[in-house]
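Field guide to reading this record: the first block holds the primary sequence, the second block holds the structure written as discrete tokens, and the final block holds curator observations. Each block starts with its own label. This record concerns RNA-dependent RNA polymerase, catalogued under organism Funneliformis mosseae.

BLOCK 1 — SEQUENCE
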Amino acid sequence: MQEVILDNYFKGLEPILGLYDRWHKLHSSRFGISDKQSIYLAQMCAQLVDSTKQGLTIKPSVRHNDNELFGKLPVPYWMDKDRLKMKPDSGDNFGVTNIMDLLCITIEKETNEVNSKEFSVAKMSQDLVDTHINEFWTNEFIRAQHMKEGSAYKEDLNLIANSMSELVQLYNKKCANIYQDNQDRKEIELSSSKSVLTTNSSRLNDEFKGVDYEFLNKFLNSPPIENYKSSIFKFLKDRTSTTFENSLDPLAMFELQLKAASLYLSSVEKKLDGQVCWVIAFRTLCNIKSQMVDGDQSLVIGGPRAIIDEVWQSLRIDKKWLKRKKM
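BLOCK 2 — STRUCTURE
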């Protein structure tokens, strides 16, 4: 019975307080808050806040007169969303007339641009290798040419490159073996029940997760610190802080970025499922990308200066950057 009453008598009706509040916004936005009618509507809103508790009601004649006076007020642009929620005959948009309208248009324009599929913080290129990651890596070789111990630092960079290249090969080989073993099991168990196949799928996922964890540790701890030649990594003693990519040890973080960039360049020519860099160095690559974008002279709007661990998911700077076509 209650639902019938609500549907037949109250459905589509706007609360009295909401109606007067809307009239107050419309009238004051056009004539100012000091206008007598604006003051009257503000006082009515104040009275209606506690009208139910006090047992007060609006006389039908007052409601009728107010509706005749304020019901056809034109709706400014910045309140257009409110107008769309009302009945079609509640008023017409009278266009852009004040600073609120201009502000609303500006915000909508910026929001639509950021939310569009075409939006990209970093300029897109057709190059297979990301220019920012590649620039970060090659800049270190250029820097080595101007250092007193440049040859030793260059040896360290080559050591990192060889170590990461070997890691990519081992990772892809191990994953290929796991996948092949799983295919062999499927051929043997073609007549097995669905539950067995589900178990095999779960086991396969667990095996891949184990490989990811294994190579994450190898990535963090390779190459051996004692194999470095230059004094740059002389004081690199603790790599444990890089597990969660915090900034307690800037030197360890710098080494981590070098390894991530090298890992990316070693695996970028592989198909997407063979690019181990996204599996174990995604956040570090995001940080490199954001730093290089921020360093551009193009004054990119919205380019992040850093991506911290707690909010990296919401600050992924360019989804398109991660969606390379399979070669």
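BLOCK 3 — OBSERVATIONS
Residues 2-115 form one domain.
Confidence is low (pLDDT under 50) at residues 8-13, 83-94, 299-319.
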